[in-house]
Specification:
CATH architecture: 2-Layer Sandwich
Distance between the termini: 22 Å
Helix content: 25-40%
Number of strands: 8
Strand order of the largest sheet: 2-3-4-5-6-7-1-8
CATH class: Alpha Beta
Radius of gyration: 15 Å
Number of domains: 1
Order of helices and strands: EHHEEEEEEHE
Strand content: over 45%
Shape: globular
CATH superfamily: START domain
Amino acid sequence: MSEYQFVTTWQIEAPIDAVWEAIYRSDRWPEWWDSVRRVVELSPGDENGVGNVRRYSWRSRLPYPLIFEVQVTRVKRPSVLEGLSRGELVGRGTWNLSTAGSVTTVRNTWEVQTTKGWMNLLAPLARPLFAWNHAYSMRHGGEGLARLLGARLIAITHG
């Protein structure tokens, strides 16, 4: 399996609670995030959402879909949402939110391994292309979130 670590930061002029709610409600991502094609809840989890399992179908600029499940492992409203993925991407994803004045900073860290044979075979050459595709998807996610909230997207960075 090939390993990837992607860190994306969105800075958006919107209240942290509104940003949190949009990210936490991933079942609604397809409404505003064009790379997310479908989200299906498989298990609701507890009253805070811990244990919730959803299956995500993604497709970005490159012509291949990714399907994986995420089980929520940590919820600290409105600052941390964390989960473990399995399927075509195996690993951990974390959303960290903070606020300063009217600006909410969202930091998404995605540490995953691919399980698709062709992706692993091509990884030595295609890694920059896969990273570009991820950045494209995250940029459109930040833009979609800003539109959803009627907010100004101040910056998107990838590190």
